Every structure is written in C-alpha cells, then in structure tokens.
Amino acid sequence: MLEASDVAVLRGERVIFSGLRLTVSPGEAVVLTGANGAGKSTLLRVLAGLVGLAEGRVLWNGEDALADRAAHAARLRYLAHADALKPGLSVAENLQFWARQWGGDIPAALEAVGLAPLAELPARMLSAGQKRRLALARLALAPCPIWLLDEPSVGLDAASIARLGALLRRHRAAGGLVVAATHVPLPLDGAREHRLDGLPAGVPA
Ligand SMILES: Nc1ncnc2c1ncn2[C@@H]1O[C@H](COP(=O)(O)OP(=O)(O)OP(=O)(O)O)[C@@H](O)[C@H]1O
After folding, report:
1. Mutate to test the pocket of ligand 1, among 10, 11, 194 (most ligand atoms within 8 A of CB)
2. H-helix or E-strand containing 98?
3. Domain residues of the chain, as ranges?
4. I want to staple 14 with a disulfide (CB 3.0 to 4.6 A). Which of 4, 150, 154, 202 is the partner?
C-alpha cells in the first residue's frame, strides 16, 4: 500500500499543497485531476521520492518509503511528461538500457505497445505518439508494484490507448497499483479520482 500522509510541498516561497492524504492499495488505480498548475505532476514526483517534503511522509506498507531511496526507486516506474529516450539509440536499444536494470523481455515489451516493426529504427525518427509508446514499453518490461504515470495517453491513437488499457489491466490484476495524472479519461476501469484544487497563484509559505 502506498500512502501520502499529511504531505506539504513548497516550491520556492509557495505552498503547492498541504495536508494532502492519499492511500492506494494493491490493484487500485487513482486518477489525479485538477487545473494546470494544481500540483498533479508534483504529487507524482512526491510519491516517486523526487521532491522534498516540507511536512508529512510517504509510506510503503506502513513504513517510511524514502528511508531507503534506492529500494523505493526499485519498486516503482515513473513515467514523466518527457519521454526520457536516447535519440541516437534504436527503439530496441532504448529498451535494452532499461532491461539491464530491471530485466524483462524486450520483444514482448515492444509487441505490447505495437512497436515491434520499428525495433531497429533510431528513436529520434519516431513520431510523438511512437515516442510515447516507447516510453510506455518500459512498463511492459518487468513487473513492479507501483506505476506513477504523468498524462500517459497524450499523443496516443485509439489502438495505442487500447494497448495501454491492456497493460494497466494486467498490472492491476497482478496486484500492481497505479497513480496517473490526466486531463482526459484513461483506460482504467474503476479508477478513483483524486482532485487537486490547487492554489492558483500560490500562497506564501
Ligand atoms: N521546479 C519548480 N520550481 C518552482 N515551482 C514549480 C516547480 N515545478 C512546479 N512548480 C509549480 O508547482 C505548481 C504545480 O505544478 P505541477 O506541474 O505539479 O502542476 P500540474 O497539476 O501537473 O499541471 P499541468 O496540468 O499543467 O501539468 C505550479 O504552480 C508550478 O509553477
């Protein structure tokens, strides 16, 4: 179980959110919604252990998740806005980079996102949606309990959204949890919405 317990985050002089509580159980999906700047990406980064907390804690199965940051990083996949691809490497080589850390079946992962026919193409030649699919292929490599996804469906065509839905179903059926920020509906059955109302101009800390 992943939990944000009374979390407050400051950016510069501004409070992005405070008193935030969120609990996500195995197999569960939470969709973060809210206006631009409400703090959805910030919350994903908090859960990933990438943003310092002014107050509160991030817990994994009741224990401080960030006490051992390497262990926390190893139990999650964080998909940011940017696709974090290496443009000079081929599609398959990009996945090999991650597979060296996590293991996994590269051809199967490429198949899962419909990129098998483009395996040898340099990543820089992919379209925007294909780049997003390559980023998503990382999720298909090896099982991992926590998926933190920032607008995962941006740029995807209908077939790719269906494939994303299949990946999400498989992950949750195996007990994985998902927290996803989005402005559009995602292929996530029975997801719980957590709305961040934000503080439009920020408030002084
Ligand atoms: N590195 C940073 N330094 C200072 N302020 C930041 C930083 N990153 C984000 N912010 C501020 O934090 C607030 C929340 O940003 P965040 O990216 O989490 O919003 P969001 O809900 O994901 O927005 P969007 O829907 O536009 O993606 C914004 O006001 C933003 O300006």
Report:
1. 11
2. helix 91-102
3. 25-49+67-204
4. 202
CA distance 190 to 165: 12
38 CB under 6 A from ligand 1? yes
Nearest 5°: the CA angle 6, 9, 12 is 160
- What is the pLDDT, as a whole number, of residue 198? 59
Q: For the chain, what is the radius of gyration of the CA atoms?
A: 17
| Assembly ipTM | 0.96
The answer, yes or no, to whether residue 12 has pLDDT greater than 90, is no
SS3 at position 64: strand
Using CA atoms, how far apart are residues 12 and 103, in angstroms rounded to an integer? 39
Other Cβ atoms less than 10 A from the Cβ of 8: the count is 16
Mutate to test the pocket of ligand 1, among 15, 18, 36, 41 (most ligand atoms within 8 A of CB): 41
SS3 10: strand
* Domain 25-49+67-204, CATH homologous superfamily name and number: P-loop containing nucleotide triphosphate hydrolases (3.40.50.300)
> CB of 132 closer than 6 A to ligand 1?
no
For 25, residues 6+ apart whose C-beta sits below 8 A from its C-beta are 1, 177
Q: Which of 75-89, 111-125, 145-159 has the lowest mean pLDDT?
A: 75-89
* Residue 179 and residue 30 in contact, taking contact as beta carbons nearer than 8 Å: yes
Would strands 2-11 and 14-24 be described as parallel, antiparallel, or unpaired? antiparallel
